[in-house]
């Protein structure tokens, strides 16, 4: 009877009982993170790879090291092929199908050429100073979540011009009286916002440029989100932050305006992906902000 009672006690014993001599404790282990890449898989989008911290990912020949959250993020150029490959340092690999863009070609006539290019000596000097300010900012990197937590629209205003169309401008310079013709790709996401509409941070980040008077951009802010992703806001009437400020998604940073080379009040929001593993900025390019808005956003 004594042996039976002991066995019964062992059967009904809970975790509060002492370990039975000669047995090993059960240790729960977390399975290793399996490297994987996904994201906004369209030309002009973003690849987000996840693995263990320090994992090296290579996407379309570009290498990035996963941060402390195990994330590495890669811009997808607007002319990326239909399939791009990825590999991880643990030997994992895969292919990503990239959707093709279908952007418009637009011709805009009767344009003031001075809204497109610097023409007078004063304009050219202003443009040169502005270019150097922008180059210095784009060479500055800060850590951050990048697109891991998603993006929100920076202004409560409808979209007025998408990322991607090629624009051909034909007009006359009011400064010189000479005709002009210029072609460029629209590399931002425009919102039809009246002057003084609040502009908020679309994601967490660090301010790397805040200037009220760049030549083309007018009032401008560059916000580094980490992983090389930088939001660029142009044509602002009010700049309410300074370089080095750390902001959270939804924080007020500026107000919209009609400054710089623009034909009317609006907010131009662009996002540039910069290769943080390279000292050269020649391989950096703009991606489509609208595609970032489609990524899941955390609460």
Q: Which structural traits does this protein have?
A:
ten-stranded antiparallel β-sheet; single chain; 20 strands; four-stranded antiparallel β-sheet; 299 residues; mainly beta
Provide an overview of this structure.
It is a single chain. This protein is mainly β and 299 residues long. 11% of the residues lie in helices and 37% in strands. The protein has helices spanning 2-12, 121-138, 289-293; strands at 36-40, 46-50, 56-59, 62-65, 71-75, 83-88, 93-97, 105-112, 159-161, 166-172, 179-185, 189-191, 198-200, 205-214, 218-226, 229-239, 246-247, 252-256, 267-273, 285-287. It is globular, with a radius of gyration of 26 Å. Residues 1-19 have low confidence and may be disordered.
Topology:
Elements: H1 2-12, E1 36-40, E2 46-50, E3 56-59, E4 62-65, E5 71-75, E6 83-88, E7 93-97, E8 105-112, H2 121-138, E9 159-161, E10 166-172, E11 179-185, E12 189-191, E13 198-200, E14 205-214, E15 218-226, E16 229-239, E17 246-247, E18 252-256, E19 267-273, E20 285-287, H3 289-293
Parallel strand pairs: 8-10
Antiparallel strand pairs: 1-2, 2-5, 3-4, 3-6, 6-7, 9-12, 10-11, 12-19, 13-18, 14-15, 14-17, 15-16, 16-18, 16-19, 19-20
Distance between the termini: 60 Å
Overall strand count: 20
Shape type: globular
Number of helices: 3
What's the overall average pLDDT, rounded? 90
Summarize the structure.
The chain has 299 residues and is mainly β.
